[in-house]
Write a structure and sequence with these properties.
Strand content: under 5%
Distance between the termini: 26 Å
Structural class: mainly alpha
Number of domains: 2
Mean pLDDT: 79
Number of strands: 2
Helix content: 55-70%
Largest sheet: 2 strands, antiparallel
Length: 391
C-alpha cells in the first residue's frame, strides 16, 4: 500500500513538461559550468580556447606521470629551478608584465612543475597568504621535503595545537597528477547549490496540494491520519531528491573524469597547495566522498525546510521564495559564526574541513552532525504538522 501511495506522489511530479524543464536546465547548467571549469583550470596555454586547454591538460597529465612518485629533495629542487627559470626569464612576459610563454617546451615544463612550485610557495608564504614572489627570496638549494613539512607543522600548530599527533603520520609526499580530483573538490559546492534549487522545487511540488485535484483527499480515502500522509510525502521527496542529487553529482563528476582522468585518487590531499595545511590524513577520493555527503545533508535540510514552509503556508511560491532566500542570503554573512550553520555555507565549509580544523571557534567536523540533527528536527515537525483547516 505504501509503495503504491509513493508511486502516486512521484507521478505528480513526473510529467513531460517538468521532465523537459529539468533536463533542459540541468544540461545547460552542467555544460556551461563544465566549460567554465576547463577554461579556468590551472594549466597554462598560449591561446584561449577549450581545445587548447584540453590539450594542455592532457600534456600536463603525461608530464606529471613521469615525476617520481615518492618526492625526493633532488626532484623538488629540479622542479623549482625549472619553474623559476621560466618565471624569471623576461622574454616570457609581455609589455604589461603578464606571463606570455611562446616556446612549447617551456609551456610543458611550466605546467609540469607548477604544482610543486605552488606547494613550496604555500609552505613559505605568510599564514593565510599565497605570495609567488617568495621563490625569489629563497635559496632553492636549501629547500628539502623535510623543511617544507617542518614549516607546515609549525603553521598547523598555530591554527590548532590539537592536531600535533596527526602530523607525525605525514613525513613524505607521494606526488603525481591529481588535477581532476582537485577540480572536482573546487566545483562541487556550485553543483550542490544547483541541486538545492532543484530539490526545493520538487519538495514544493509534492507538498503543495492543488485545489482542483486535492491529492490529499485521494490519500485520505486510503489513510486516515494526517501524519501518515505527511510521512508518505516526506519519503517520496526524500527518494526523488536523493536520486536527483546523486545523479547530478555523478554526471558532472563523469564529465570531469572524462577530460582530466581518474589518476591521483589515492594521493594525499596535501599534494595540492589548496589543501597543504589540512591536518587530515586522507586522500582525494575520501575528500570527494566527504564533500558529496556534506552536500547531500545540505540538500536534505533545504528539502525538508521547503516542505515544512509549503505545508505551513499552503502556498507553493512563498515556500520556494523563502527557501531561495534561505540558500543565498547567508552568503552575505560569511564572517558571522551563526550563519556557518546554513546549508549554503556548510558546503563551502566542507572545503575548509580539508584546510583548517576550526571555523569561528567551532570544530567544523561537528557541522555534519548539526546538519543531520536539523534534518531530523525538520522531518519531525513536517510529519506532525496538520493542515490549518483540520486543526
Amino acid at each position: 500500500m505504501v509503495k503504491k501511495l509513493i508511486f502516486i506522489e512521484i507521478k505528480k511530479c513526473i510529467n513531460p513538461k517538468i521532465i523537459f524543464a529539468f533536463c533542459f536546465f540541468t544540461i545547460i547548467f552542467l555544460s556551461t559550468f563544465f566549460l567554465y571549469s576547463i577554461s579556468s583550470t590551472d594549466v597554462y596555454v598560449n591561446e584561449f580556447s577549450i581545445n587548447a586547454k584540453i590539450d594542455g591538460i592532457s600534456a600536463k597529465r603525461d608530464a606529471q606521470a613521469k615525476i617520481e612518485k615518492k618526492l625526493t629533495d633532488k626532484e623538488l629542487r629540479n622542479s623549482l629551478k625549472g619553474f623559476t627559470g621560466i618565471t624569471n626569464d623576461k622574454s616570457n612576459f609581455d609589455s604589461t608584465g603578464n606571463l606570455m610563454i611562446n616556446d612549447s617546451e617551456s609551456i610543458k615544463m611550466f605546467n609540469k612543475y607548477s604544482d610543486l612550485a605552488n606547494l613550496v610557495i604555500r609552505a613559505y608564504s605568510p599564514m593565510y597568504s599565497f605570495n609567488p614572489d617568495i621563490l625569489n627570496h629563497l635559496d632553492l638549494n636549501d629547500i628539502t621535503v623535510q623543511s617544507i613539512f617542518v614549516n607546515r607543522e609549525n603553521n598547523i600548530k598555530t591554527i590548532n595545537p590539537d592536531f600535533s599527533d596527526k602530523l607525525k603520520e605525514q613525513k613524505y609526499i607521494d606526488f603525481g597528477y591529481s588535477l581532476g580530483w582537485q577540480t572536482l573538490l573546487n566545483d562541487l559546492p556550485y553543483i550542490q547549490i544547483y541541486s538545492m534549487i532543484i530539490s526545493l522545487i520538487i519538495a514544493a511540488l509534492i507538498f503543495f496540494v492543488e485545489k482542483k485535484c486535492n491529492m490529499n483527499m485521494i490519500l485520505r480515502t486510503l489513510i486516515t491520519k494526517e501524519s501518515k500522509i505527511n510521512f508518505i510525502k516526506a519519503i517520496t521527496v526524500l527518494i526523488m531528491n536523493s536520486a536527483i542529487y546523486f545523479s547530478i553529482v555523478l554526471i558532472y563528476s563523469a564529465l570531469i573524469w572524462n577530460v582530466f582522468g581518474l589518476e591521483g585518487w589515492n594521493m594525499k590531499i596535501q599534494t595540492s597547495y589548496l589543501f597543504w595545511l589540512s591536518p587530515l590524513n586522507i586522500n582525494y577520493f575520501q575528500a570527494y566522498m566527504v564533500n558529496v555527503l556534506i552536500g547531500y545533508l545540505a540538500v536534505l535540510v533545504v528539502t525538508f525546510f521547503t516542505s515544512l514552509l509549503v505545508k505551513i503556508n499552503e502556498k507553493k511560491y512563498i515556500g520556494e521564495l523563502l527557501s531561495i532566500l534561505f540558500i543565498f542570503i547567508p552568503f552575505m554573512f560569511n564572517n558571522y559564526s551563526f550563519f556557518c550553520f546554513f546549508p549554503s555555507n556548510v558546503i563551502q565549509l566542507s572545503r575548509n574541513i580539508l584546510n583548517f580544523s576550526r571555523i569561528n571557534g567551532i570544530n567544523s567536523i561537528y557541522l555534519e552532525f548539526i546538519a543531520l540533527l536539523c534534518v531530523a528536527i525538520l522531518l519531525f515537525f513536517l510529519v506532525c504538522r496538520k493542515n490549518r483547516k483540520e486543526i
